[in-house]
Structure formats: structure tokens, C-alpha cells
Amino acid sequence: MKDLTNSNVERQNILNNRYALERVQEYIGLPAILFEGEYWLTKQMVAEFFEIDGSTIDRYLERYTDELTHNGYVLIRGKRLKEIKLAFAPVINVGSKTTQLGLFNFRAFLNLAMLLVESDKARLLRSKMLDIVIDTINQKTGGNTKYINQRDTDYLTSAIKEPKYRKMFTDALNLYVDMGNYKYAVYTDKVYVSIFKEKAKEYCDILKIEQKKENLRETLYAEVLDLIASFEVGLAHDLKVKSEALNRKLSPTEANQVFADFVAHPLHSPLIDKARIKMASRDLHFREAFHHKLEEYIQSVSADDFDRFLGEQSMDFDKQLEQAKEIFKRLKDSE
Fold first, then answer.
1. Strands of 33-35's sheet in order across
2. How far apart, in whole angstroms, are the C-alpha atoms of residue 185 and residue 190?
3. Are 321 and 218 in contact (CB under 8 A)?
4. Domain map of the chain by residue range?
5. What pTM did the predictor assign?
6. Minimal CA–CA distance to 221: which of 314, 144, 283, 141?
7. In contact, 54 and 117? CB cutoff 8 Å
8. 37-82: per-residue pLDDT in tens?
9. Exposed, middle or buried, 18 (CB in 10 Å: 0-12/13-18/19+)?
10. Which DSSP state fits 77?
11. What is the spatial distance between Cα 9 and Cα 150, in angstroms, rounded to a whole number?
């Protein structure tokens, strides 16, 4: 089981997943005060729930100030403090001389629950949160997280274009590189390694893909597919230029140099970094697939990505295909 107390990335993944948070909030049913359109808990209310003292919370607030503040913890003073005192004096139990009051919204409350090691209730809540997160992802994807990439509405557009760019690459290898058929696997792996540091077999092993039955590229995110396409058409062009300049096919050494020069161009760096971050982070959370060669690129999954793959923005791939068929049909009828 994941240790949330030691991983800021895993904590943030849960806190960015509003679909799971809604279910966690319903599960806890925690009483709170409604102030300025949001539900809040005071430090005392949080301490009572976790059965710890206020000084323990103070230590965590000091140590994890930035993280807890990022996720909704606030200190209110002045007019806002006066308003909350008037509205909730019996509940919040704040003295007249209090000049500031710390409040936890639900995200900050859960954030603290994922940090606390002194509370058995926090430990139990962490375990339940992980169960709910896994169940939420499985419900949304029908349990088939291997192809969660296809729920992105951008995926179909990338997947439709990909074979055309792939053919340009394989045609260039055929026409301009003096090697046997092994060259197709060799240079495809070189593309993969340059983008996400893994050969096809390594990637398939991590995602448990059966290479004879499943297509690796059908599991790739739209951004990664687009970058592979850019590499392949760019390499096709450079291989052609070099071969025509020499007026002959390229030797493996010459083709390798064309490849090395292409990959080394700095214009690729931002896109490669972005693709690595997306792939490593999404796969770890959604697929529980760890790309150890991309470990340094792992970040928390953004709230936008949860909407992209689990929310209303996402769409079952079969539904996307049906919509695409209707669009193509309308275009054909209009000709």
C-alpha cells in the first residue's frame, strides 16, 4: 500500500482528484461550518476528530505550511474573523482576544490526515481514501486502466493521423538506409528511447502488454503519440536529405549520425520533458505502472488531467468512434 505520509506526489494526486474527494467527503460525513460559501473546520474541531492535541497540529502546520496552505488552510483576521465569530461563536469557541483563526477546508483536512502519524483515525482514513481512489478510477474506466489514455478526447485525432506519419518514417528507412528489415525495429526503438527512455519491450513489460496481441501505440497518451509522429516525420526528412546529398543509401553509421543530430536539437527538449512528465506521472497514478527510467519526472497528476480521463471531458473510446463516424458521414454527404 502506498505510504501517503512520505509522498507529497501521492498526497497531491488524491487531493487533485475531485471525483474521489466527493466520495471521501460523503463517506466521512464530517460536520463543519459554512462560511463564505465553503465548509470549514477549526483547529480544535480537527484535533477532536483525530483525537490529538492542538500542539500536534501546530507542529504539522509549521513543518508543512506551504503544502497545507496550497490545499486550503487559511488564517483569517480582522473583518473576516469578526464575521465568523458573530456567526459561529458557540461552535468555534474563540475568545474575544483572539486576533487570528486557522481554518481547514476539506482538502486541507484530508491533507493533514495524510500527514499525521500520531493518530489511529488518520491512519484508518488514509487506508479508506486509497480504497476509494482505486475504486473511483476503476468505476470510471470500467476497470481497464491500460487504455485510460483513450478516454482523452484528443486521443482519437492523434491516433487517426499516426499511421500516416509512421508510414513516412518506414518508407524513408526503406528508401534511404542500407540495412535489412531489422532496421525498422532498431530505429523505432531509438525514437522511443529518445522520447521516454524505454525500448518497446521495456515499455510493454511495464504496462503488461502482449506484443503479439496488442499494439503498444494504442496505450500511449495523445501528447506522446504527437511527439513520436513529429520525430518520425522529421527523421524521414533528414534521412532523405542526407541520402540525396550523397546520392546513395546511408550506412547504419551514417543513419545513426542523422538520428543523433536530430535528437540533439534543443527545440525538442521542452516537448520531451513534457511528454516524460505526463507519461511517468499519469501511468504511476492511473495504471500503477512505474517507469523507473523516468522516476525523476514524476509529479502529481493535475486536476485538469483527472477531468480529462475521469470526468465529463473524457469519453469512452467506442463513443468517440461513433461520433467520428457521424462526422465523416456528414462530410461525405456534403461533398
1. 33-35, 38-42, 100-104, 74-77
2. 9
3. no
4. 4-140, 144-334
5. 0.85
6. 283
7. no
8. 899 999 999 999 999 999 999 999 999 999 999 999 999 998 888 8
9. middle
10. E
11. 24
